[in-house]
Design brief:
The structure is a single chain. By secondary structure, this protein is α/β, with parallel strands linked by helices. The protein contains 16 helices and 29 strands. Helix 10 packs across helix 11 and helix 14 packs parallel to helix 15. The chain is elongated and about 90 Å long. The termini are far apart. The relative contact order is 0.08.
Amino acid sequence: MTSAAEQEAVPDHAPERAGPPVWPGAPTPLGARCRVGPDGVTGTNFALWAGGAEAVELCLFDPDGTELRLPLTELTHEIWHGFVPGIEAGQRYGYRVHGRWDPWTGARWNPAKLLLDPYARAVDGDFTLPPEVYGHVRDWPQQHVADTVRDERDSAPYVPKGVVVQDDDDWSDDRRPKTPWQDSVIYELHVKGFTRLHPGIPEHLRGTYAGLAHPAAVEHLVRLGVTAVELLPVHQFAHEDHLLRRGLRNHWGYNSIGYFAPHAGYSSSGTTGQQVGEFKRMVRALHAAGIEVILDVVYNHTAEAGELGPTLSLKGIDNRGYYRLQSDARRYADYTGCGNTLHVVQPQVLRLITDSLRYWVTEMGVDGFRFDLAAALARSMHDVDMLSPFLAVIAQDPVLRRVKLIAEPWDVGNGGYQVGAFPPLWTEWNDRYRDAVRDFWRGALPDVRDLGYRLSGSSDLYAWGGRRPYASVNFVTAHDGFTLRDLVTYERKHNEANGEGNRDGTHDNRSWNCGAEGETDDPGINALRLRQQRNLLTTLLLSTGVPMLVAGDEMGRTQDGNNNAYCQDNAIGWLDWTLPGDPGRAQLLALTRRLLALRHDHPVLRRRAFFSGRPQGADGLRDLAWFTAEGAEMTEPDWYAPTATLGLYLSGRDIPGRDERGEQITDDSFLAVLHAGPRPLDFRLPGPPWAETYELVVDTGREDQSTPPGTEHAGGATITVGARSMVLLRVRA
């Protein structure tokens, strides 16, 4: 161990044995790529960007862990490269990068630490984070300066290795669904959590990519009626030290360390490159079923955390080149709450991210991305900038501008909340939709102004710059927070299992427990909870915009009140497939399937353009109209008055746009009545010109949801809407 003043040579621990020659090779592409070299010799080209480094060693590992170090002597535009004859797919490798140790200026080179190639396409091994993997002396007595004291212990025995992967880019048998945005229904799921307990999946495939590709898993998605799965992070990730010390693991995976590698822990076939082929087969299976694959990606920070975090990859390659540092360069700028923030303004960082995105589209077959804390990526030097290099590059990239792009439009820094601000091409998680719908059904909205905007596509947020209603990804729940069942079962978070004294997770749940905290045997409370779940699901799936469901909400999944189950790689974080055996849960699943089929069949529920709200014909019929319980159109004062009831009329006669054959799109018209009041309500149905007759299609007050009610009512008649329930009526021609 040395201090900053003792920076002489680091002892060479490499075994003394002859290795293969290293030919010059090429600086592109970055990473390790099998290729044919001079004179038809096969081997692998290695290329690593390491700005400011003084030397780079390629480290090759035999199956028994024996290490061979090969200096890379070719340097082109800060890229160290070389071609090694005879190196084939399956070879494990890493890098040692030499340079100054001067944390006060942000320089943290330490060749004692084996580093993962940022472009590694497969990773073998687990990150266990013993003291040896830290670039500084973690247990230095004076902790306030511990990060300035270099640790010279060799980390190679304790860190995963990159794996050389054979190129296999033949996607000729794959057919991407290419579902238009307005027709999309997103289903957020965790590869392991969704499949780990599925009884129809063979046990050795549960929790893996192959498990998600299994017909039993695909069948559920197809029968449900979703068009895309949004996978929680599948980039190679590491577990945080504070979790490992408590015997827990990072379950969600928002702690990336390898942006090209499928997470090896989800592979059933092996971790020395087999995970790549298994992931591709999963994508093909989902595409064959008409389901797109969207990845939740974490390019805002890495698993190396702050100055007291481990040295695993980028920190040891060029700390100053990859991370945003404060004016005191020992410290990291943290817009993510995770200790560090990637410096996306830097060309090499921008290249890393865009190369990774293109790789997952062109070579792994995915159809889009949801960007975690996307506002952090849109920051220029400090402020969020919608003309930032990252957004500009995405907008002009011929590959990336064609795929689905979803922003989580906030980060934890100043000015980070950017809902409604991202440019065209982007859709956004709309948390204002979530909050308004939750507040309405728990009786906490002062009026229905905000709810009206959210149900009709959030034009107040997105009707600019050519954006469309599908810019709004509508959701009531997400992986982060209560499940749908817990939203109506708990008013307080119960995160004790996380081991953080229930301090973690949000306090702002906007939930209502319906009269008792937690599970209960009270039949009245349980019936109300099921009805509230039906209300929330029905509202979501009938709203204009792109609906996002969370896996298991359609059958009443619970996390026992844990609203931050990021470290619960157990029954709390896994989907319980026995739930549909309960009659109430089975009816919830049946209703979800019916609502998604209804959405699929009716373009009036999947509009490509915002409503005008103006008369569309001589009869004064509008494409969108709002009604009070008295059957009268709402006036300006009605929007400001306290109310628990809202009527929404959608005209199928006035849908803008044409179909693929150029024909005008027409559809049935619908009337939805949302009633959050505690007592039944008499609602007068609007008469002509709105409708002569209505057919009841959905009534969330009914326990049996397997078939439509089918009751007809005359226009102008009064119907009774049950307490805290929602009805949908179709206008009969």
